[in-house]
Write a structure and sequence with these properties.
alpha+beta; elongated; single chain; 209 residues; 6 helices; 7 strands; 2 domains
Length: 209
């Protein structure tokens, strides 16, 4: 075996052991039912994971090491199982990868497309009930804020929603609603465009998320 292959194999073995140790710690703490000890372990595990992430960028691929730990017979990982072990690591990360964030947004907005340009995140979506979107989805904003703090800065979120209702009752119906949210200053503006072309721009207001 070549030297590079040996290095990669040793690195992968070490990373597998790191994830197994975190799950060992969590499993042992969960059996002791000591709240203070469990909190200490969780903080220690999260700090350890963030150090690993900073060096190896495993947010999208850590599951490979969980699989490997099970194949290697690591006891706590085998006891908890693959899904529960991954759920625990997800909880430690406490933020979504970009692909996971996009999937989450798509689950909250109909026909959503997501695009990041520099420090802006654009969400384009449709709806048949515009009244459900008079305010931006707070849970979505929280997930984007976590992503922004952990992965790459997102200063503002633009949510553009088109009304595709089959029954526009009158020319006063909102056909497009656009939210502009600043994650930096926690403020929000909304623009409503109606069927007759009328455009209404709100004043900037505080939004909590």
């Amino acid at each position: 075996m070549s030297k590079p292959d040996t290095f990669v194999e040793c690195k992968d073995e070490l990373l597998m052991k790191c994830f197994a140790i975190m799950i060992d710690n969590h499993w042992i703490a969960s059996q002791l039912q000591d709240t203070d000890y469990s909190r200490t372990i969780e903080l220690s595990n999260r700090s350890f994971l963030m150090q690993i992430e900073k060096e190896y960028h495993l947010r999208e691929s850590y599951m490979d090491y969980i699989h490997r730990a099970i194949e290697n017979g690591e006891s706590s990982v085998c006891t908890m199982g693959f899904n529960n072990s991954c759920q625990y690591i997800e909880r430690l990360y406490d933020y979504r990868s970009y692909s996971s964030l996009v999937q989450y947004i798509e689950s909250r907005y109909d026909n959503a497309t997501v695009e990041q340009k520099d420090t802006r995140l654009y969400i384009h979506a449709t709806t048949k009930c515009v009244r459900n979107h008079l305010r931006p989805n707070i849970e979505v904003l929280r997930e984007i804020l976590k992503y922004s703090k952990a992965v790459t800065h997102v200063n503002s979120v633009i949510i553009d929603i088109n009304n595709i209702s089959d029954n526009p009752e009158h020319n006063n119906i909102i056909v497009t609603i656009k939210h502009n949210v600043s994650l930096v200053y926690s403020n929000w503006r909304v623009t409503e465009i109606r069927l007759d072309g009328t455009r209404t721009d709100s004043k900037s207001q505080f939004i909590s998320f």
